[in-house]
Amino acid sequence: MSQPNLPLPRSHVKRESGQSMILIAFIFIALLGFVGLTVDVGRLFMFRGMLRNATDAASLSAAAQYREGRSHSEIEASAKDRNIRHAHDLFTISGSSNIHHCRRFYWRNSFNGCGLGH
């Protein structure tokens, strides 16, 4: 025979009455962590896109200056100017550039300094 479901004594109910508040507090802390992580990843992708746009603008400007036959210093200045204008003060450009002048060959190889990986 099975025993009938009897109500729990009042003392047992009082001991478990605050248990749900503790679980809700832990879940809320975890939820805040996920919200913070989501905001950080969103900002990361936003800044990555802005940096990509600035780099694209600088490379297009340098290519246009190169096509017009400008000097190395003019190409570098134009690229830096476009990069600064499109970066929206994300960073400052300092130091030297890494622009190489290459001869145009049909087959590019690593011997002329213009191949892949250089």
Q: Mind explaining what this structure looks like?
A:
The chain has 118 residues and is mainly α. Helices cover 60% and strands 0% of the residues. It has helices at 10-15, 19-67, 72-87. Helix 2 (19-67) runs antiparallel to helix 3.
Give a brief rundown of this model.
This protein is mostly helical and 118 residues long. The chain contains 3 helices and no strands.
What spatial form do the alpha-carbon principal axes imply?
A: rod-shaped
Overall pLDDT: 75
Question: Termini, distance in Å?
Answer: 85 Å
Please, what is the oligomeric state?
A: single chain
Number of strands: 0
What structural class should be given to the helix and strand makeup? mainly alpha
Radius of gyration: 31 Å
Range of strand content: under 5%
**Estimated helix fraction:** 55-70%
Total count of helical runs of at least 4 residues? 3
Low-confidence stretches: 107-113
